[in-house]
Design goal:
The structure holds two protein chains of two kinds. By secondary structure, chain A is mainly α. In chain A, 79% of the residues lie in helices and 4% in strands. Classes of the chains: A mainly alpha, B mainly alpha.
């Protein structure tokens, strides 16, 4: 039940960001730091989420089939594959490596 | 049929299909992360911002708390506020359109709109991509959630690898130039260093703080990191041969081509 509460708070705050943008005076946009922070945080969070999902296991690090998924996804992205193809490449590689015995 | 003659509408439709389709991967990953069907749908219907949705389930899948998941999703949603300001200045929506438009304010609708120069086209681009992505994203989230719940052991299907790939694919279009790559690297290292010391999910927030400090104290492109996952006017041939004509508003295309001041962190 408690996950529902955090989930709904996340939804409310997501809408709050969006609607606030439509109501703040345009001069806020003129402070370049506002959009800089929004942009650098986007990069930092996505980089962090990539790393966490690739090598973190509980409170430690692990080298397992997910690393193969990371390499496969990077390769697909270099070849400009669309999002869904990248995701399938990641899943397929992790599944294959596990099938071959590398966890 | 007249609508289809509009370049913004055609771009909006192709962006909607490309983005909507990968709602399948979100739906499948969400249910295998431990969310139920309606929690998954609530994220797509109410939160409606791909990166934040993946962040929420990514933290939950890693054993993080609901608070950490909510925080990561919320910090990642800040850029939608910036898009809201840009779109408000560009489209000047009034009345109820403001409230509906706000919910549809995401990377893709913003990029489709700001990539056009004619105000009427900017408006059509926003609403086509916004409504199109919303409908298809939710439809395919449901398909993915239903398919994912019948999969059994998600690891056997490599779905944890799918999550890794999804985050890298969300990050990738934002890594244009040395500065964003440096920010990504620093935040990746900060994450790894924080892992043994703080509870699951919190390393992601540590990285967010590091990234925010970099953004606050350094001088570089003001739109760093504000690129869509699906590039509406990319070189994949989606677009109908749109020629950029930079105007006073500063189009998305102009921004992405780095016409702004370029400086290292």
């Amino acid at each position: 039940m408690s996950l529902w509460i955090w989930l709904l708070i996340a939804c409310a705050l997501a809408y709050a960001w969006k609607i606030v943008g439509y109501f703040v005076p345009a001069r806020f946009l003129e402070d370049p730091r506002t959009s800089r922070v929004a942009g650098t945080m986007t990069i930092g969070l996505l980089a962090s989420l990539t790393v966490v999902n690739a090598v973190v296991s509980g409170q430690g690090l692990a080298a397992d089939a997910r690393l193969g998924a990371l390499a496969a996804a990077a390769t697909a992205l270099v070849f400009r594959a669309p999002f869904l193809v990248v995701v399938i490449a990641g899943a397929g590689t992790a599944a294959l490596l596990r099938f071959l015995g590398w966890n | 049929m007249k609508l289809l003659a509009s370049p913004a509408v055609r771009v909006g439709i192709s962006v909607s299909i490309a983005t909507g389709l990968y709602g399948v991967s979100f739906g499948a990953l969400a249910v295998t992360s431990g969310l139920n069907f309606w929690q998954t749908m609530a994220l797509s219907l109410l939160l409606f911002s791909g990166g934040s949705q993946f962040a929420f389930i990514g933290v939950v899948a890693g054993g993080g708390s609901g608070l950490a998941a909510m925080s990561a999703a919320t910090l990642l949603g800040m850029r939608n506020g910036i898009y809201g300001m840009q779109l408000n200045a560009l489209l000047r929506p009034t009345g109820w359109r403001k409230y509906i438009g706000a919910q549809l304010t995401i990377d893709e609708s913003t990029a489709t709109s700001t990539g056009q120069t004619d105000p009427a086209e900017q408006r059509r681009g926003f609403w086509t991509a916004g409504i199109g992505v919303y409908v298809l994203w939710n439809l395919f989230t449901a398909v993915g959630a239903l398919a994912g719940s019948g999969l059994g052991d998600p690891k056997q299907w490599g779905l944890d690898g799918a999550a890794v790939a999804a985050f890298l694919a969300l990050l990738w279009p934002r890594l244009k130039g040395r500065e964003p790559i440096a920010i990504a690297a620093v935040c990746a290292v900060a994450t790894v260093v924080a892992v043994p010391f703080v509870p699951a999910g919190v390393p992601i927030l540590v990285a967010a703080v590091v990234a925010a400090l970099v953004g606050w104290f350094s001088h570089g492109r003001r739109d760093e990191g504000l690129e869509p996952d699906v590039e509406p006017y990319g070189d994949h041939g989606h677009g109908p041969g749109h020629h950029p004509q930079p105007d006073s508003c500063g189009t998305a295309r102009e921004r992405r081509e780095g016409t702004g001041p370029e400086a290292g962190a």
